[in-house]
Amino acid sequence: MSRTGWMRVLLGVVIASVAIIAGCGKQSDTTTIQLGEVTRSLFYAPEYVALEKGFFKEEGLDVKLQTTAGGDKTMTALLSNSIDVALVGSETSIYVYQQGADDPVINFAQLTQTDGTFLVSRDAVDNFDWNSLKGSTFLGQRVGGMPQMAGEFTLKKHGIDPHNDLNLIQNIDFANVAPAFASGTGDYVQLFEPTASVFEKEGTGHVIASFGVESGHLPYTVFMTKQSFMNKNKKAVQSFTNAIYKAQQWVNSHSAEETADTVKSYFNDVDRDILISSIDRYKQQGSFATDPIIDDEEWNNLLDIMSMAGQIKERTAHDTIVDNSFAEQAIQSAK
Questions:
Q1: Keywords for this entry (predicted)?
Q2: Domain ends where: 175, 197, 215?
């Protein structure tokens, strides 16, 4: 081979090496975040939009999503460092704080701002009246969890004592509540979408009321992490929040059909019409937060609900375990 030929080969090797080094440098700029969600639900549509639309990637993040069914399991995964960020109800962070944790869990970005469950009856009901629940068998949720507390808050609002006026069943694991109702347990149940609509389509149950509408605005599902992780990874937490805000704005400005088509890969066994109707139901009642900020009014409503449920002895101040600085910066940066 001629000298010119060798020079060309050598130049090619150098260029290839530079490309590899550059690629490695780019890869090192990407931060991996292990994210655990409390359940798989269309209630969390903006989270899936952030993943599918590449908003996390735009922010230099590689987010690995796993479903850690139930608030207790999700919080255990976070505290044991199995995940970096949890999507779960804010009540779990309050429980951890009030147990005297040395490394408290901090709420930094709100995803949903209402309860996400619906009251589903086994039989079709015309002209529903909450008093018709009295004396029935009600398949409830985990004691101390947000679905159960928001449910009890709503029942009491309508003059129903859930522990005396109902045959309340609460000994079924979160992931098995829907299958238990489908197999014949209970006259009424609280269900998230798309399960509520699937049951309705199959004739297993009928959606007759919304706990989200009844219980008002609250930080129902929030992204949170341990204080130690936040202190060491402020840039990553900011990037994560930026991506969530982009997704929230996207969902707010796009139709239920467009959102359904974006997130359908997370619900392979659910028909498109169910995806659309479920997302539309959440959009219509304002369940999806349009920004990540957790405000004082929502926080106080949460504390009221928890107090009424007898789950806290004292109120944890908003600023103690809520950090809105990332949400505020995300909104400012998007302007």
A1: Signal
A2: 215
